[in-house]
Every structure is written in structure tokens, then in C-alpha cells.
Amino acid sequence: MADDKPTTEAWTVGRLLTWTTDFLRGKGADSPRLDAEVLLAHARGCQRIELYTAFEEEPTEAVRTAFRELVGRRAKGTPVAYLVGRREFFSLMFEVTSDVLIPRPETESLVVRAIDLAKLLKTESLHIADVGTGSGIIAITVAKHIKNCRVTAIDISPAALVVAKRNATKHGVAERIVFVESDLFEAVPREAKFDLVLSNPPYVALAEMAELAPDVRDHEPYLALDGGANGTEVIERLIPQTEEKLKSGGWLLMEVGSGNAARVEQLVKANPAFELAETIKDIANLPRVVQAKRK
After folding, report:
1. What is the pTM of this model?
2. What are phi and psi of 31, to 5 degrees?
3. How many CA atoms does the CB half-sphere of 105 hold within 13 Å?
4. pLDDT digits (tens, 9 = 90+) for 184-222
5. Do 171 and 61 share a structural domain?
6. Which of 80, 136, 256, 264 has the most other CB atoms within 10 Å of its CB?
């Protein structure tokens, strides 16, 4: 497939997938078969599931050319989500660009807890802040599932906010989300108060940045990953700022790395305005969401 040398065997969908899977595996891809399927479906303009009934079909030369280019970029490390421009999260499809982090299933733990807390709070109208919204996955998903909420989606990156706004419009919740370009709460109106503050902040420690997988380290936005020397530089500013923004009885939920969860818990304990709740573990049984309740 790489150079289209003459062959007696046709380049069917099935053969393209087999060849590409082996090729990407040799390049160190974590999920070579899935990558091959997603990229070929994108090149064909179809759903991935449709490939399973098209194994014997021969894609057009235009499709094969587009697919070849995508595979070449994937082999050099570009994440599949950036190649196809989208990623699923919480059963919703989100646009992603290199200006935002690629959504990950671990973040769903935070969203599930936020939805559960919204039911427990029993407030007629909830005001939620999503600090570091990126592509908007947290803000938009909670807006979809918590019908009585208004969301303030905050990000320091104007380019990320452009993506988030498009995603909010796509999913029909733009009228309930206010987007604010801000470093944490700095540009948020002083009088604004929230029932829930949700955040997936940068939490990768400086020493760990070089150890990240190349497709993450070299392609995803550095600003959204770098948590400083201990991975808690942003979190150390977020906790006291949230103290001023949370209503009494409100909750702060922060996604963290398994390596710095204990340190974040200590930061919460050191602030007398908060009561530390049990940290939520992800599907891999690793600590993932630190919870703090405003006294």
C-alpha cells in the first residue's frame, strides 16, 4: 500500500486494514487495528462499523491516497484524533484540534460525580464552573445531563475557547454556557458564585513531561499538560481561588495524576475552608478525582 507497486492481489478494505495494522504496530502504535479502522473510515467518509461489511470492496484511488497520507502522519506520531478532527467522550462526539487536549475516558469519572452531586444538591438552578475547559467536554457534558444548570467555561487559551464554542453549538447547549478567557478565575466577575467547580488542570510534573508518549508530548498542547515541578503548580493556585468562588456546601472536583493525588489531598487538607472527601478512582483503580467540599 505504501508505494502501490503492481500486485496481483487487490487492495480491498480488508487487505488495507491488515497491512496498515501491521505497519502501525511496527511503528509502536498502542492500538494499531483501531487506528487503521478509524483512519480508513475517515478517508472513505463512512462510519467505522460500515467497514465490517465492506471487507471485499476496493476503495477508489482517491480514498487510498487520502488514507495513505493519514497513515503516514500517524506513523510519524500525530494522534488519530487530530487527524480525523474528533473524539468521542461520554457518548458524545467532540471536535478536537491541536489547540486542545484529546478527551480521555478517565475524565468521565469527574463528570459522573458532578451529575450525582447535582442531584444531591437539590438546587433549583445550579451554577457550575469548568476551569480549563479545553474542547469543552466537561462543560458541555454536564450541561447536557444537568438540565437546571448554567455553566461558566474558562480557559486561558483563546484558540481552545473557539473549539469549545463550536462544540457547545453542535450539542445544543451554547445558550447555557458562558465562555471566559481567563487564567483560572482572574477574569471571572468577582460577584460570581458557584455550586460546583470542576477542573481537569495541567498536572504532569516537569520531570514526567519527557517520559510522556511521543504522540502526547510532541503534539498535544504543552500548556494544558505542564503542572510545574510537582505537577501541582496550577492546582496550588486553583484551590484558594475556588475558596472565594464556591458557595457554602459547594464542591470542587479536580482530575489529578495518580502520582500527585496524595499531594493534592494534602493541599486541600491544608486549607481550612475545605473538607476533603474520598478521592475517586478511575477504571484502572488509580486515584483520579480529588474532591473538596466548601464548609
Report:
1. 0.93
2. -135, 70
3. 5
4. 999 999 999 999 999 999 999 998 998 998 889 999 999
5. no
6. 136
